[in-house]
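Q: I have 242 residues here and want to know how they pack in 3D. Can you give me a structure?
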Amino acid sequence: MKENDSSPEKGKKRKKKKSNNYFNQDTEDAIVEFQNAKGDLAEQEHIFVEKIRPSFLKLIENIIFVYKFHTLGDIDTLKNDCLAFLFENLYKFDATRGHKAFSYYNICSKNWFIQRVKVFKKKNKLDVHLDQTVLSKLEKNENEMVVSSFEDEFLKQEYFELLKEEMKTWRNKFTKPQEKIVLESVILLMSNPDFISIFSKKGIFLYLREISGLSTKQIVTNLSKLRKKYESFKKRYHIGEF
């Protein structure tokens, strides 16, 4: 029995069990425990410091790293401010609704940093020094000067990536051969934008026809079914379900 206990397989299982996610079920339970301890400030402080704060800090660090918010300046101050924001919202999470606390606070953190980006952008606009060359360009052709918004680009990229992942879950929801072909063709194009050299409605249909082997009428018919799924995704995205 001892030999079996020390086998490589057992060792792997122990290792896997030990490498839990930083925001795991213990963290989820601790948040409910914190809420239930309302009125006992000492107990709440203990629960937050020992069981919740480390997970929140790791969550914030991951948000900063993944979405490159480190360009906003004093990151340590931003971390502490975001942590304080999450602490203030500990009572707002409702575990009885069936949602995970991780998803809720992940969205809260992203939205908090997006607001900081907006503030950062406004401040930079005030601090920007326009030299004579830029001013002359503005005077000559003001309408052609388009400044790309950082947060708009960020949100577009996030929306596009979430949509691609969402579409992959539709594979089990379409049973007819043509539906599946059109879905896979759209996923292929979205996953490989470099394939597309003509970004127009007509151009996209040409690519879909080449990939799927279907006629334009068949593609249009099956795209209408995908469009219903897309409209549902868009509504859920805008109410913060992702």
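Q: Anything worth noting?
A: Residues 5-20, 129-135, 141-150 have pLDDT under 50 and may be disordered. Residues 22-127 form one domain.
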